[in-house]
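ok so heres the complex, two chains, lmk if somethin looks off
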Amino acid sequence: MFNNFVYQNPVKVIFGKGQIAQLDKQLPKEAKILLTYGGGSIFKNGVYEQVKQALKGRQVIEFGGIEANPTYETLMKAVEIGKKENIDFLLAVGGGSVLDGTKFIAAAIPYEGDDAWQLVTGKARIKTAIPLGAVLTLPATGSEMNFFAVISRKETHQKKGMGNPLLYPVFSVLDPETTYSLPQHQVANGIADAFTHVMEQYMTYPVNAEIQDRMAESTLQTLIAVAPKTLENPTDYEARANFMWAATVALNGFMGVGVPQDWATHEIGHELTAFHGIDHGRTLATVLPHLMRIKKDEKRGKLIQYAQRVWNLHGTDDELVEGAIQKTIDFYESLGVPTKASAYGVGHETIEKIVQRFKDNNVKLGERGDITPDVVGEILEMSIA
Amino acid sequence: MFNNFVYQNPVKVIFGKGQIAQLDKQLPKEAKILLTYGGGSIFKNGVYEQVKQALKGRQVIEFGGIEANPTYETLMKAVEIGKKENIDFLLAVGGGSVLDGTKFIAAAIPYEGDDAWQLVTGKARIKTAIPLGAVLTLPATGSEMNFFAVISRKETHQKKGMGNPLLYPVFSVLDPETTYSLPQHQVANGIADAFTHVMEQYMTYPVNAEIQDRMAESTLQTLIAVAPKTLENPTDYEARANFMWAATVALNGFMGVGVPQDWATHEIGHELTAFHGIDHGRTLATVLPHLMRIKKDEKRGKLIQYAQRVWNLHGTDDELVEGAIQKTIDFYESLGVPTKASAYGVGHETIEKIVQRFKDNNVKLGERGDITPDVVGEILEMSIA
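and the predicted structre for the whole thing:
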């Protein structure tokens, strides 16, 4: 049976065409706003103009240049501005990296300790945060409707997750039209990311949580159906809207209540990004299929259910297990996302480094805590074999 | 394509065994609490004891006797106590009727107008409300995670829905064990109610809202699978927990974002309760199948999808439409819930009164507004034929 749980998600989602104009109503009237964004794509796709229009007459300071896999080093510059300028609201405009980075900024501005990195590692507790809102331009991470953030540190090749209910966005604007100009590979990465978020919460062992399982299956089926459409025709509003909402639902906490969760794929993937700079969504595709194969006995019940309900496969249990893994590989590959880490030049040396780091930190991953550093090594060796 | 939407649901759900003990942490320390409940079942099933234990050392005033289909007349007595005693938190312990009634009390205590019934009819606006929490003991209405309430008025045979975001419970405790002692017919009513809530949001016309449709289908499939189990074995925790969570999800707003919704079955059902006192869940079963039949051309696309995805039917489109209606009838009947209003003695006279009332108020129901009073008459005539 699924476990007791507490569920609460206060984020106000404002979804649809032209909804950036709603910003004016959502933002506190007298707030001094720090507008955060990334590498400048919002200047090309018209989003910046729409946001500025909605912010007319307000006190706004801008902070651009938050990179993919947002770094502590960059974000601390925004924190400094935030402190100096007495910012009282953050508005993140961009994809998951900008949103995640802005969550860190929100926690770090009011933080009074010396070393804000401790907010990421969990050594310091987040006691308060500047409120933040978001305009999402890349469906992928789910950051727009959860309280998680993943922050990297260049200096030490670290990539760490943090989370706190104080970091829920107050609101998130999701306008599918803002995503029309995304490069194909980013859309593919986003689909891979969202798909894997669901799998982390689903591909464990059965606890007969009917609603949670079917929600997960619904989201997988939606992503599978919508992927070829939205890749082929980026301005198909319907396909893009379904993708965008699916990616949000994939990690807003709802399908994961009370059920075992894995997240080993993400932990391992973060290391591949930390050492090789591989796009987040792409790292996941190089890990999950091999993890599924190595853990196929432990995940057998769910692999069979997934094969039947998501992929409509028929056959013996062994055939279903194998089919489940193969379909997962085929799906990632259909997005143009490789399922081998060797495609990015990852070799034995990197694997050794990752295994060693996990050993040093005594890390045990997975829903049963049985993915030891050596098992991580096996998974990654399979990914470069 | 599905419409633009705004979604926000701040309710904190505390789900599982033994969770009533969490009340102490959830309630504001110094609050003067009005504890509301129904006909006294909470004294027999141990819930009252658990609640009192959790409330130890607090200022609590009790108000019992909120009836099924809670009446304005009864609730105004609680409002009077609330005003006189300066109550600042309401704790509803019971099923949907107690929760709905308590939402009205929450709005009416701070209301300064002469006629609190206007809060129900919408003639007066709800500007503020006393915060409320809930301990749910009957899965059915979804009131524990939404801001709606349905209130009856004896004097005028009226039953009306009201809603306002100020009426979201701050928290709701859902312990499946509190439902073990429910009479079978109440469990059956609850299943019928939750099932129909989903149908109201789903059985309209397709707008290719993949997540919303699949969420609806997931919830229907869960209810269908769990119904015989939980009716046969009321103390099967797993079945009861899946039912309880499904009933909450069925009406927490999530599956209904941006999609057309019907709600004619509820509007008509409310009239059957108002005139004949039929249990709410039971009225729905006497309306929906006939509404589906009369509106089968308008609802054709969704009837076919429902037949295929929820009931795994195969055949021609016409066979699927017919199968969809028949399966719905069979499902209600399998719960011991009749699908004919004649089973309750409803006759032509009542139908005429209902049609007349809808005519007087110029009511047009359904997702297209094409269920005129005369169509309501047709539906109800089919239900007594």
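quick notes: The two ends of chain A are 38 Å apart (CA to CA). thats all i got rn
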